[in-house]
Design brief:
By secondary structure, this protein is α/β, with parallel strands linked by helices. It is 36% helix and 24% strand. It has an eight-stranded parallel β-sheet. It has a three-stranded antiparallel β-sheet with strand order 1-2-3, with helices on both faces. It has a two-stranded antiparallel sheet with strand order 12-15. Helix 8 runs parallel beside helix 9.
Length: 337
């Protein structure tokens, strides 16, 4: 195998703000794995919350480049196990794992959803994310991109009032993501008000480690609650099963498609709703998420819709969330020149 590493700085259409940070650009690492004339592509974005930079991922991969390139590529699962043993970060492993799965599918001439025995006749529609901003700017974003489902980022002093105002401009489904900014009491109080405003569920309202608070929320909230920051890796799924109604799996955080498949299976066993989310990836990462769609209840894969310009072709998100899957195998990704 041969590894290629490319850093991109992706400009966003709008400043993207959540309860703890704002940014106008998203740094991302694209990894290529080439074997016997086929190349698979994977992606992982930087993330200050988890102390991950593009430079740190590149350094990790370069440190084991010779070991990886000397491997005989057989399956993505075997490569993933090898990378875990090398103690790379989950973000770096994710980029390599996605590339390995893309390569695996391209070599066999089939998209991954087919290799996994699933069908894309039916799949959940991605939400479109509205970051924290002034009411006027949030409304303008909704008008710019009419969508059937919006994820609304909250974490201000006037969260319910914001949703009440936005509701005047759309009859779409609303999902709320507070990114750890609320208390248990605030969540329980807000839930019925938000339910009346057409909110479907709440995502990670409490800090990730506030399990005592989540016990109160699970018992009293009239809206389902989905774990995000509380569900990072496979070992988190069991605990989340007792405190949440569902889990949001992020490929970058858990280490790629290989562990995500196991997390989906475990979540189903626990009776949890399954969501996969993105970290403002380009079409490279989003095309990997799309392969999981037949196995999901909800999905947040709007990364390319938030970018001024994409860097790849693959699964295409059309108006209202319908998708066009490429004929190419794997995740179907090709990089633009």
């Amino acid at each position: 195998m041969r590894i290629s590493l490319r850093k991109y700085i992706l400009p966003l259409k709008h400043t993207f703000s959540i309860s703890r940070e704002s940014h106008d650009f998203q740094d991302t690492l694209i990894v290529g794995l080439t074997d016997n004339g086929s190349t698979g592509y994977g992606e992982a974005t930087s993330n200050p919350y988890y102390h991950i930079t593009i430079e740190s991922m590149i350094a990790e991969i370069e440190a084991v480049r010779n070991d990886i390139e000397s491997q005989h590529f057989e399956t993505p699962e075997a490569l993933h196990q090898f990378l875990v043993a090398k103690e790379l970060s989950n973000f770096a492993i994710c980029a390599l794992d996605l590339a390995a799965w893309d390569l695996f599918g391209k070599q066999r001439g089939k998209p991954l959803y087919q290799l996994w025995g699933t069908s894309i006749e039916n799949y959940p529609i991605t939400n479109y994310t509205i970051g924290i901003a002034s009411i006027d700017k949030m409304v303008a974003k909704m008008k710019e991109t009419p969508w059937p489902i919006y994820k609304i980022k909250l974490g201000t002093e006037d969260d319910v009032a914001i949703v009440r105002e936005l509701r005047k401009y759309s009859d779409a489904i609303f999902r709320i993501d507070a990114n750890c900014a609320w208390s248990a009491e605030e969540t329980v109080y807000n839930a019925p008000l938000l339910k009346d405003l057409g909110v479907e569920f709440l995502e990670q309202p409490l800090p990730a480690s506030d399990w005592e608070g989540m016990e109160q929320v699970k018992a009293k909230s009239v809206l389902p609650v989905i774990a995000d920051e509380s569900c990072i890796v496979e070992s988190d799924v069991d605990q989340c099963g007792s405190y949440f109604d569902g889990i949001n799996i992020k490929l970058t955080k858990c280490g790629g498609l290989t562990p995500a498949l196991r997390m989906i299976e475990k979540g189903r066993q626990l009776g949890l709703k399954i969501m996969v989310g993105c970290m403002t990836e380009s079409t490279v990462g989003i095309s990997a998420i799309a392969q999981l769609l037949p196995q999901l209840d909800y999905v947040d894969m709007d990364g390319p819709l938030l970018l001024k310009e994409d860097i790849a072709d693959g699964v295409e998100i059309c108006d209202k969330g319908n998708l066009i899957f490429p004929r190419l195998g794997g995740t179907g990704v090709t990089l633009r020149s």
